[in-house]
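Fill in residues.
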């Protein structure tokens, strides 16, 4: 499976945080790339942070704070 297909599938699953983190991980030089277990952990962490940020933005919009 190629990289773009994987990124597209992550986006279809609405895992945009994981997709961005995956692309960033692949852009790293080979000697700095993460092991599989660290990569999965970073992807999960990025997705969780993305969801927290989206929820915070929603609450701020709904509260009409400036």
């Amino acid at each position: 499976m190629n990289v773009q297909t994987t990124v597209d599938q992550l986006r279809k699953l609405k895992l945009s945080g994981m997709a961005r983190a995956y692309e960033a991980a692949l852009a790293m030089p080979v000697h700095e790339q993460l092991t599989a277990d660290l990569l999965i952990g970073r992807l999960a962490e990025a997705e969780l942070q993305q969801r927290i940020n989206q929820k915070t933005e929603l609450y701020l919009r709904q509260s009409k704070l400036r």
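The first helix runs from residue 3 to 12.
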